[in-house]
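The instructor's notes for this session suggest beginning with a concrete chain rather than abstract definitions. Hand out the sequence below and ask the class to guess, before any prediction is shown, which regions might be ordered.
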Amino acid sequence: MNPVRIGLLGLGTVGRGTLTVLRRNQEDISRRAGRGIEVRMAAVRDKARARSYAPDLQLVTDPFLVVDHPDIDIVVEVMGGITPNLELVLRALRAGKHVVTANKALLAEHGNEIFETAQEKGVMVAFEAAVAGGIPIIKTLREGLTANRIEWIAGIINGTSNFILSEMRTGGKSFTEVLKMAQDLGYAESDPTFDIEGIDAAHKLTIMAAIAFGMPMHFEAVYTEGISRLTGTDIQYAEELGYRIKLLGITRRTAEGVELRVHPTLIPASRLIANVEGVMNAVLVKGDALGATLLCGAGAGAEPTASAVVADLVDVTRMHTADPEHRVPHLAFQPKYLCEVPILPMDKVRSAYYLRLSVHDRPGVLADITRILADLDVSIVAMVQKEPSGDSEWVDIIMLTHVTLEQRINAAIKRIEGLQSISGKITRIRMESLNRH
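After discussion, reveal the predicted structure:
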């Protein structure tokens, strides 16, 4: 049987990794796929540079030449970005070519149109590498847990942010210092906004939520809060209280709607996911039949991501000639059964909270604060007052609350900050227990 012919859009880190893995493991890959998988063409920015590591490939600088080439069966898009990627992917699908992509932003923001086009043309879009690098979370959600009603997902799905938080905790360094370290090591871009402000994680969460709950992509509805305002003080206090702070992407099915949120979160240090450090990723999925399942591994890098790309290529090759009606649906549910569900506004989300207040060290202050919390039906589960520093009359108080509505905690913070005995803004970080039940 003739090999499946691949056209690569991009020969950067992931593109080169894909080429390397395909060639190194070609015998096993062919045996698993049932036929050979060969890269025939690649679109690159710099032909001379690419020629040094891909001397035998046909190289072009115009990616549309790859998409339009009649000998290409599967287009692998690993360039990143939205433009011209969306046009390239749609053009490939409309020409009857299958697409494999690692582009989470493209899918989160335009996946509804992309999957609809693929469905119309009877071709596949595979995207395991778009979420959590080499961790097979898409296949797990779409196939492995298909018997389950997914209740919630919580994931460390951005390695850069996880590295920064890990180093701040273990090394006692400031956010600025660790961000510079991450950039020097190549873990963070020169403009790290997408990573540190939670946008990258929000893209990935959008995709997982759509698969888990059988709904269209709703990236615009994800509440997103990054780690740039976190301080070493709060990381240290959390540690003293038995918690770790992680940037989590959380989606949960509730009676009122689906939660979609990315933000720093206190997790009990005893949880396995709380101990995932450095640039590693981890995703915790709670299904009604299986319970909570943790998947952990490399969330980025040339070969870990290429592992997912090649796995998609094998899947597409196996199903290349299959009846489209008998393929695994892109979003797990059959397209006609995808349904719109309400997205829960953030002020309607229920969570526990960590509050750090700088208060005037005098009688009656705590009574004022607890009265406001009680008036708004916010219950305190634990409270710690730190020792004053030197001759200062101001002390830090840390409060941990029971689960309550976000709108209540917001109202309480606003009223407490209005007290003359409070200095500056209150630090608020959400808490999740991530229990099996």
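Then share the key points. The chain has a mean pLDDT of 95. The chain is about 35% helix and 25% strand.
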